[in-house]
């Protein structure tokens, strides 16, 4: 897969799909230090690589993380999100047992919900104007 200034190419198409994803800890427990966030970023990068997805940016605070992912159209964003949450929770549980008191029942680190929003490209108003300016063939 080649990449040209944020545009990726595959066998059957060219794409630039980005999503802003946010995960919050269960009950917004303040579970993360900078060391935890650094390891969380490594884990999330590994999961993204397994999905042929690129983690473009990562940041967080003590009770949530933000990700900017670039993903191919063959990847269902919901499956990526579920894997990111599940794998990161399992790895954190085994690697850092001191966080155990932040897990709630069934060893869940993350809240059951998440945020995912599409980002990038032109604003909708610009796209609508562009489309409206094109003439239909006679």
From TrEMBL:
Q: Which residues form the Transposase IS200-like domain?
A: 14-134
Q: Which InterPro entries match?
A: Transposase_17 (IPR002686), Transposase_17_sf (IPR036515)
> Entry's SUPFAM superfamilies?
Transposase IS200-like
Which Pfam families does the record match to this protein?
Answer: Y1_Tnp (PF01797)
Top-level division of the source organism's lineage: Bacteria
Q: What is this protein called?
A: IS200/IS605 family transposase
Q: Which organism is it from?
A: Nonomuraea roseola
């Amino acid at each position: 897969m080649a990449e040209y200034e944020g545009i990726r190419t595959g066998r059957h198409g060219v794409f630039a799909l980005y999503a802003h994803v946010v995960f919050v800890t269960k009950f917004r427990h303040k579970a993360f230090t900078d060391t935890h966030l650094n390891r969380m970023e490594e884990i999330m990068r590994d999961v993204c690589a397994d999905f042929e997805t690129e983690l473009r940016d990562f940041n967080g605070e003590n009770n949530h993380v933000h990700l900017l992912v670039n993903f191919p159209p063959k990847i269902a964003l919901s499956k990526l999100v579920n894997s990111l949450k599940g794998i990161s929770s399992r790895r954190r549980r085994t690697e850092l047992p001191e966080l155990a008191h932040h897990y709630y029942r069934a060893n869940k680190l993350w809240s059951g919900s998440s945020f995912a929003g599409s980002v990038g490209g032109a604003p909708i108003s610009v796209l609508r104007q562009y489309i409206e300016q094109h003439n239909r063939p006679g």
